[in-house]
Design goal:
Elements lengths: L1 E2 L3 H6 L3 E5 L2 E6 L3 H10 L1 E5 L4 E6 L3 H8 L11 E8 L5 E9 L4 E5 L4 H12 L5 E4 L4 E7 L3 H7 L13 E6 L2 E6 L8 E7 H15 L4 E3 L2 H10 L35 H9 L6 E8 L10 E4 L2 E12 L4 E9 L4 H4 L6 H4 L3 E6 L2 E8 L11
Parallel strand pairs: 1-3, 4-14
Antiparallel strand pairs: 2-3, 4-10, 5-8, 5-9, 6-7, 7-8, 10-13, 11-12, 12-13, 15-18, 15-20, 16-17, 16-19, 17-18, 19-20
């Protein structure tokens, strides 16, 4: 397994390590519950160096990106970030990405388990463009600092509020005399930052943030709490809630796909047909809340009037709400077409009762609005 530059720091902090996307990563340090609540109430610090960092430059960098994602990259302002998807020819999501437009190039953040696939796809499609693809993932590390005290920690570290990037923007700056990209993004639903630096600087940054953060109740956080935090915020996980068989519209990510982008892109005909309603969705991602105190894990069957019509993609107990929550994909095809008519629009779907099979027993759940916990981004 691969190890991040912070691996020894996690061991020293007593972290329990697990395999994730080919990397040895901390799943928890003390308690998933404690780490989750600390992020919501004060500040959590995460090693997310397993994520990939790919730079795109060259005369045709914009045209290249316009072709590989459905989002309109021509509208991206300098130093701004956008949530995008890399699609296959059938409109399925090969990966979800964050694309930053820098002054002279673009930075794409890719999922750890998808890095090799994504880079291969980038290189394949770049042959038709004057664009340079540089995978810097092995040279760079990344820390996430999330929670209501995150901005206070960054301020005490030397970057005051007025000079901190706004939500979904990035700033090239210095932290503890180290060159970094300071991004106001995250995967928790809380305000916070992601810090990208050279591998050789990341231990220094990690240690200093932990030291400064003591005054603000900072807590190291592993993958366990990262998952419960993102699920409360109803943020999708590739390989669970979204994958190569699900389009952005079916994943309820239609808000991210513009209707009037003129340039062609991969699977545009499929995506636009779904976007305009010319072709009905085959399935759709919904949020649910169980009535009983039982957790419905990935793969549990979803039933409508006794007929299996889908499955749970993610499920957990919400530490913030004390309720059992999850996301599920429900089919709109075949025998399920008539049964799912109440789910065709967002307004109609809320309050619909579904059944979930857990350990050979049926439990009632209710379709609810997303997110489960209000997002606290600083705009």
């Amino acid at each position: 397994m691969k190890k991040t530059a912070l691996h020894d720091e996690h061991i020293a902090l007593g972290a329990k390590m697990v395999e994730f996307g080919g990397w040895e990563m901390p799943v928890q340090y003390k308690s998933i519950l404690e780490e989750h609540k600390a992020t919501r109430s004060s500040a959590g610090i995460f090693d997310v160096s397993h994520m990939g960092q790919v730079f795109v430059s060259g005369k045709d960098a914009l045209n290249f990106l316009q072709y590989i994602v459905p989002q309109d990259v021509s509208t991206f302002n300098i130093n701004c970030a956008h949530y995008c998807q890399l699609l296959n020819k059938n409109g399925g999501i090969e990966d979800d990405l964050i694309i930053y437009r820098l002054e002279d190039k673009y930075l794409i953040i890719v999922n750890a388990s998808r890095r090799e696939n994504d880079v291969e796809r980038f290189l394949e499609h770049s042959k038709n463009f004057d664009a340079v693809i540089e995978d810097k993932s092995s040279e760079l590390s990344m820390i996430a600092l999330q929670g209501p005290n995150a901005h206070k920690i960054i301020e005490k570290a030397g970057i005051d509020d007025i000079n901190q990037p706004k939500f979904f923007t990035v700033k090239k700056t210095k932290l503890f005399d180290c060159d970094i990209f300071l991004c106001r993004t995250g995967y928790t639903g809380e305000d916070g930052f992601e810090i990208i630096s050279k591998n050789e600087d990341i231990v220094k940054i990690w240690r200093k943030l932990l030291e400064i953060g003591k005054d603000f109740s900072i807590t190291p956080v592993g993958l366990g709490a990262r998952d419960t935090l993102r699920l409360e915020a109803a943020l999708c996980l590739w390989g669970a809630d979204i994958d190569e068989t699900t389009t952005p519209l079916e994943a309820d990510l239609g808000w991210s796909v513009p209707k009037n982008k003129k340039e062609p892109y991969i699977a545009k005909d499929i995506i636009m047909a779904q976007k305009t309603g010319a072709v009905p969705l085959r399935k759709k991602l919904f949020a649910f809340e169980l009535k009983d105190r039982i957790i419905a894990r990935h793969g549990a069957g979803i039933f409508l009037n006794g007929k299996k019509c889908g499955y749970v993609t993610s499920g957990t107990i919400s530490p913030t709400l004390g309720k059992n929550i999850g996301l599920c994909l429900i089919s709109f095809e075949g025998d399920c077409k008539n049964l799912a008519t109440s789910l065709n629009t967002k307004e109609k779907s809320i309050g619909t009762i579904i059944q979930i099979m857990v350990r050979n027993k049926m439990y009632n759940a209710e379709i609810v609005k997303k997110p489960f916990v209000e997002k606290k981004y600083v705009k």
